[in-house]
Amino acid sequence: MKKNVLWHLALALSVFLVSPVFADDTGTEAVQECLESLSKVASPANVVASAGRFENRVRIQWDPVARATGYSVFRARNVAGPYYPISPVLKEATFDDTKADVGKYYWYKIIAWRYIFHSPASEPANGWAALFMPSGEETTVELLTRVIMDIPHFMRIKKAASKVEETLPEPIDTDAYLPTGDEIFSYVEQVCATEHRRIGSPEARIAEEYIIGEMSAILGAANVGVEEVECDVYKAESWNLQVEDDGVMTEFPAFYTVNTGMVYGEKPNGGSVTGSMVWAGEGTREEFDKLGNIQGKIVVAQCPFPSFPVGLIQMLYDDGYYTSDPTGSFNLLTTQDLTFVRSNFPAEYTEENNSNSVYWLASDRGAAGLVLVLKDHPFDINTHWGPYAGKMKAMPCMYVSHYKNDRIKALAQAGGDATLTITGTLEPGHGRNIYGILPGQSEETIIISTHHDSAFKGATEDGTGVGMVLAMAETWAQVPLEQREKTLLFITTTGHFYGGKGSRTFAHTHAEDLLKNAVLDINLEHLAARNYVDDGQGNGIFDGEQALSIVFVNENYEAIATASRMMKRTEPERTLLIPSTLLGPVPPGEAGHYHMYTGVDFIHWIGQPYYLLTSDDTLDKVDVSQLRPLAKGISGMIGTYMKMD
Predict the structure, then answer these.
(1) Where does the secretion signal sit in this chain (predicted)?
(2) Do residues 234 and 389 lie in contact, with contact meaning Cβ atoms separated by under 8 Å?
(3) Average pLDDT over every residue of 449-456
């Protein structure tokens, strides 16, 4: 067959060459015109790469090119290249990149072929595989290995973003419209008027009504939307841990682990379990294997928290995109315990159980209950709230302070009995997402977001987030319409403590309307948090500094440049500007959910005080003096994007 084709091509060429058309210059010109016509191949237009829409792949699509005989796809890690071919010659105007790594961003260009001739490369398109929330299982060594491997790519992004920073427009000046720190704090106080704002609770409804009222007063009721988010409302009404000490059952200080001990059908109101205690160390699979049969027993283990090597990351990443540390508190040895991440008890965002979780290692082997020591968690405290993915679990679990580690360990190793009691209610309910729209001159939209639910008082998580969103609404509602070139969308969602369901639901519901023209999400969480440290006796003391804050930005040059310039001008304390993928495919918090489901670029500002997720997150932890300076910086970023083409 191949010989046949070659023979016909040779014959056709010989006929073509001896044709009378070659007898004069006119014939030669005709051949030139023919070759030029063949070689003029249009570049593929409207190239689109999927932004996290597909698991383990990126789908690239483009408009077919007239008379093209094929296409080739090229890929790079950043927009400037270099680009490398990743496909065979394709017949169709679509290609699935199945070798895209989760958590990495890619740029794609397409060329069209007409036989041996090809077009110029298309405009680049940015895409990535479906992302997921980090669970916290990655060790410090694994984190550092990944970080080191990505340094060359980071440096290219940083250099490109710095050039963009030089071209940024000056932001609209909103200083005259900004509320004072005390005025912003009054928002925080009202949001935090109750002891908690757990999804579906009466306390949460009080806060929601307040936010609805304030947004309506600022933006007009017609511009405010409220949407219900369904959930299972878990309410522990009583809990208790009794342990055997010298033959006598005595109460041991403990706090229930949310979403454990109550499930529909089996025990919707919880109950008590009793069994002999066993000590499982840090709760690894190997330690469980050594224990042998634990059917009906109460497992006691440690729940460690990972450490983030702040100083080392700073050094390796050349201060990240930018480091703001006016008090000079960072050095090479600076670390931060991530008290919102449990190394051996990760959050689970799917139906599948994590087989390495200390919880399932105990439950699957028939344990009656689980007691976890909050290993090395600062402060003598047991009120840790997590994991909070909204997944109900039958086996009861309780937390105890790491200051009680030696005592509970000795009692467990002695093999005495323990009784865990968690009783309450589990019933269907809902929380509410609240949003407000401030129309601009175009449908291009800037999002300012946070969540309003909280495990306890939640002054910094996320009273200050809500306070800042309302402050931005108040500020920009006073800016004349002719200066508001873009629309502003203010969002406070429920269900952060339910696997981020509020933000996920909002993103899914509004991907094709409110979020369709979104150009940036500025997400604000845990702002103006004072840094409390353990005094060695279990007491939290204010060290005079701000808690570590991290500004995560995805790989968008304008977003990186905007955040970098803001930090240089306002110099917030102890704040790092780093890549969004440093801790995982997306950072913890609401920005990740919007980005995962819509692809919107983001600047995600989130504080990391040690008292997060505990009853210690109270109003005295907010540094009121920092609220207005932070508001000025945030408004400046909005103002920059307002004037950006």
Answers:
(1) 1-23
(2) no
(3) 98
Same fold for the pair 140-231+442-642 and 233-308+336-427: no
Q: How many whole angstroms separate alpha carbon 502 and alpha carbon 414? A: 45
Q: How is the chain split into domains, by residue range? A: 2-39, 48-127, 140-231+442-642, 233-308+336-427
The two tokens of residue 412 are 């467990």
DSSP 360: H
> How many residues are given for the chain?
645
pLDDT in tens, 621-643: 999 999 999 999 999 999 999 99
Count of CB atoms situated within 10 Å of the CB of 257: 28
Residue 478 pLDDT > 90: yes
Tell the burial category of 263 from Cβ atoms under 10 Å away from its Cβ (0-12, 13-18, 19+).
middle
Report the candidate in 525, 545, 544 with the shortest Cα–Cα distance to residue 310: 545
| Superfamily classification of domain 140-231+442-642 | Zn peptidases (3.40.630.10)
- Report the C-alpha gap between 208 and 134 in whole angstroms: 28
Q: pLDDT per residue over 92-113, tens digit each?
A: 999 999 999 887 899 999 999 9
The three-state DSSP-derived secondary structure of 336-356 is: EECCCCCCCCCCCCCCCCCCC
| Cβ–Cβ under 8 Å, residues 260 and 395 | yes
Whole-number Å distance between alpha carbons of 317 and 151: 7
Query: Distance between CA atoms of 472 and 491, rounded to whole angstroms?
Result: 11
Helix, strand, coil distribution of the chain in percent, nearest 5? 30, 30, 40
- pLDDT computed for residue 131 by the predictor: 77
- Express each pLDDT in 368-386 by its tens digit: 999 999 999 999 999 999 9
CA–CA gap between residue 584 and residue 504 (Å, rounded): 18
CATH of domain 233-308+336-427: 3.50.30.30
Block residue for tokens 């995600």: 604
pLDDT score for 7: 38
Q: What is the distance between the alpha carbons of residues 201 and 460, in angstroms, rounded to a whole number?
A: 20
Rounded distance, CA 498 to CA 133, Å? Answer: 13
| Structure-derived torsion over alpha carbons of residues 366, 262, 499, 258, reported in degrees to the nearest 10 | -90
- pLDDT of res. 348: 87
The DSSP code for 462 is: I
Q: Which residue has the tokens 């983030």?
A: 308
Cis omega (within 30 of 0) on the bond before 579? no
Domain 48-127: state its class.
Answer: mainly beta
Identity of the residue numbered 318: D
